[in-house]
Amino acid sequence: MVIRDYIKLTNLSDVSIKSMMIYISLVTGKVEEELHNLSIDELVNLYNENNLELDSNGRNVIKIDTTPLQIINFNTVSLGQFIDLEHYISDNWVKNIPFITAILYRLFDKQPLKEIIFEDYSTIDIKERANIFLDTININHVYGNIMKYIKWRESIFSTYSFFDNGINDINPDELNEEELEIYYDEINNAEKSKKSMWQDILTKVSEGDITRFDKILETNVILVFNRLDNMISESNKINKSDIIT
Amino acid sequence: MIELDFKEYKVNIKSEASEINLDELIKVTNVFRDDKSNIKIWFRILGILSDDERYVYMSDDMLFDVIGKLNINSSEYIKEVKIGDETYTAEFDDEGKPKLNLFYLSELEEFINVNPDGWVKDAMCLLFKIDKNTDGINEVMTADIVIPYINHITTKLTTHFGKLNELLTNGNKGLH
Fold first, then answer.
1. 8 Å CB contact between B121 and B130
2. Closest to A83 (Cα-Cα) out of A218, A209, A236, A177
3. What does pLDDT average to in each consecutive run of 10 residues of chain A (245 residues)?
4. Among candidates A191, A211, A202, which has minimal Cα distance to A231?
5. Smallest CA–CA separation between B77 and chain A, in Å?
């Protein structure tokens, strides 16, 4: 099943006859017209017999025609790539699978006895590749690695305390009216700061020097976050010592 | 047609299925669907079927007399309709009923969901393969032709909907 069909399938939200026919057609490869003269019982049976099971492993190398593309090592992702991926993941990631695939799978060169060299990220036309992937790449070949990336980025977010606004730990059902008001204010503030989060991180790490933005965007995301974490810790220490003196 | 004589004026009320055009039938079925109060229902229906809005001055007795004379029903399937110079034919199954295979049912289900107020016209156009913009559909598709089809469709969809609902508790969870 190509990525386009998978996205179509995930958009089938209701249990209608049409949805079931589309579902069966996508999962089994049968043409929809073949299903038109089935009885409702036959349709239901066919639907029950065909669960969609995606490969949780995926392939490390996919091909467009004969050109291979390899999954990157997530630990080598730059801040710029991480931000681009966040853009596609945080806004309905299933719809954006072709774009995520276009960022995670790259052209590469592998010489004997040498490290693999991936193409330069800045030269990739993500939209063009995403359009090609949509109708050519089997969802089973990439789904597993996309899920692995999503897990990996979650571990990144949970590693660094500056991503934790503390709101997720609060149960609104346990709050009184006044606390609830503050809680919703905090959620609004968090949403606002999310919009400028990457800009704020760049400004902080570059110490306000805009000419360093490009360099930082090309730097490994873990290095950038480590640096930011250190800067925040140091600044907290200074603030504490100011209070003591 | 029922004629109500108010001395100063007369009001005609369509009372036979063959006198009621498609638009009027759709309005009447929507009243039955939306309204629960009996007197209100009948007043609204007579509003659709009468040629003069002064029907509202009728007495209780006249109202019940009219309701008793209404004969908006039909059970015979008409297989062919002629609109202008064209003849349109509906497909029938082995039991002599309009063919409602999964293709038709899935389309009809969507019509009802997308256009709950006007799906009947969509349905008749689908079953007779008529372009919806064809002139004359409203006048030719009278209630006596349409009602048996509506009944057949709603019965079939209701039965199937029950079976589909079983999926919510049993079997494949792919769609929900």
1. no
2. A218
3. 92 81 90 91 86 88 94 96 94 94 96 93 95 95 96 92 71 79 75 79 91 94 93 78 61
4. A202
5. 22
- A47 close to B (CB below 8 A): yes
Which pLDDT score is estimated for A167?
A: 62
Instruction: Say if pTM beats, i.e. exceeds, 0.95.
Output: no
Determine whether the interchain pair B102/A36 forms a contact, defined as Cβ–Cβ distance below 8 Å: yes
A7–B contact, CB cutoff 8 A: no
DSSP string of B143-162, one letter each residue: HHHHHHHHHHHHHHHHHHHH
Confidence of residue B167 (pLDDT cuts 50, 70, 90): low
CA-to-CA distance for A242 and A83, rounded, in angstroms? Answer: 35
- The answer, yes or no, to whether residue B173 has pLDDT greater than 60, is no
CB distance A44 to B164 below 8 Å: yes
In three-state secondary structure terms, B116 is coil
Which residues on chain A are in Cβ contact (under 8 Å) with B165?
Answer: 15
- Measured between CB atoms, does B162 come within 8 Å of chain A? no
DSSP designation for B134: -
Q: Judge contact between A67 and A45, C-beta under 8 A.
A: no
